[in-house]
Amino acid sequence: MSGLFSKQAAVYAAARPVYPKDLFTKLAALTAHHRLAWDVGTGSGQAAISLAEHYDSVVATDVSEEQLLHATTHAKVRYLHTRDAMPGEDLVAMLGGEGSVDLITVAEAAHWFDLPAFYGIARRVLRKPGGVIAIWGYNYRVSPVEDMMTRFFNTTLPYRDPRTWLYMNGYKDLPFPFDDIGLGREGEPASLDVDHEMSFEGLIGMLRSGSAVTTAKQQGVDLLGEREVKELEEEWGGASLVRKVTFKAFLLVGTPRAQD
């Protein structure tokens, strides 16, 4: 999947929303220690930078080298490229060994993972007891422009990777074999509002950075051609309008089970 996000890495970094600070405050309050956090599928580092406000050190990993080139630098954040077939033992060692991680976060990326393999690594590296894993994402549910977003996303359906249905359905079907600690559990994600000041240019940038739009382009179909952009501009209210929007995100948080 790394190729789907390499060509538009700069657009992705500029266009995607920033997650609310109180989310990271809540997550940090759940962990027994604050030595190390691991942000998986970090992209351009939106979550990693916020984690650095609460943890002594943050390891932020991604399979896309191009995405990491556009990540925001921070003294506490160490960005690492993890190739697709990286052996589990190497990854555990890279993170500091078993039981070394206080918090694992995955923002808008878990649907791309080999989940059994990832969860196996997560159980090994999370501190026991007291380690926490948090996974969240967002989709077309963006208030107050959800109808417009739904119509656009319907045009992407022929080009969607089957894995993206996990986030299109709000992670309700995403396996999450961890004990519930009150912020969403398997089959019942918690709701998470992500407020964002967005320009029309930012909207188009966000849509262009989507994997289905990239796949369509590779097949010779431009889902955001001149006519489509003009229609979106009219629905948005004009190219110069900056709107406050709310991404209706979804959240799963847990801790390793006693038998793990």
Automatic annotation (TrEMBL):
Pfam families reported in the protein's UniProt record: Methyltransf_11 (PF08241)
Xref: SUPFAM superfamilies: S-adenosyl-L-methionine-dependent methyltransferases
InterPro entries listed in its UniProt record: Methyltransf_11 (IPR013216), SAM-dependent_MTases_sf (IPR029063)
Domain of life: Eukaryota
CDD domains: AdoMet_MTases (cd02440)
Coiled-coil residue spans: none
Domain Methyltransferase type, chain residue ranges per copy: 39-134
Signal peptide: none
Name of this protein: Methyltransferase type 11 domain-containing protein
Organism from which the protein derives: Urochloa decumbens
